[in-house]
Amino acid sequence: TGGMENAALTFVHDPIVCDAGEALDLGEWPRLLVAHELAHQWFGDLVTCRSWRDLWLNEAFASWMELAWLGQVEGEAARRLWFEEYRERFLRSEGRDLPLSAGWRVAGRCSGPAHHVYTKGPWVVEMLRRHVGASDFDRAIALYLDRHSDGLVETADLVRAVDDATGRN
Questions:
Q1: Which burial class, exposed, middle or buried, applies to 59 when counting CB atoms under 10 A from its CB (0-12, 13-18, 19+)?
Q2: N or C end of the chain, less CB within 10 A?
Q3: In 3D, which of 98, 95, 70, 73 has the Cα closest to residue 84?
Q4: Can you tell me whether residue 1 is helix, strand or coil?
């Protein structure tokens, strides 16, 4: 079960489309999936990774945004609990020694879903936000999206936007 973002249209697996009672049985996951896929309208569609190695830019930000949304709706405790869940998933995963920039390709072949971009990625975004502060982070991300709107991005583009917006390397 899952979803797939496309420009102006998001697909979700059948169990996600349900009534209020069924949604209660599924817990927070369907709402997080919808928030994640909607975040791809910015991180994935408005700006698109240039190559698989930069896939983390799409997925880390979408995963971070889903938890930012959860924090607004359910509170900071719920947000932190899901961050902890992502940490546990990352620590149990096989690809935890891979850099985020490995994307979905390892040793020249497609390695299947590299879960570290979904679990480690949002932690990296959160660490960046904590390091530069919320207002500088917001300014840097706005600059990144503005500069590269309707274009292809690499990790270096994000680094440059953070440097330029914050004045810090």
A1: buried
A2: C
A3: 70
A4: coil
3-state DSSP call for residue 120?
helix
Mean predicted confidence (pLDDT) in 8-27: 57
Nearest to 18 by CA among 35, 6, 30: 30
Looking at the whole model, is its pTM more than 0.85? Answer: no
Between 97 and 8, the higher pLDDT residue: 97
pLDDT of res. 143: 98
Distances (CA, A) of 66 to 18, 39, 152, 154: 20, 7, 22, 22
In the predicted model, is pLDDT for residue 14 greater than 90? no
Q: Catalytic residues, which ones?
A: 37
Average pLDDT over residues 101-124: 69
Helix, strand, coil shares of the chain as percentages rounded to 5? 65, 10, 20
d(CA 50, CA 61): 15
Q: Which residues contact 5 (CB under 8 A, 6 or more apart)?
A: 37, 38, 40, 41, 44, 45, 62
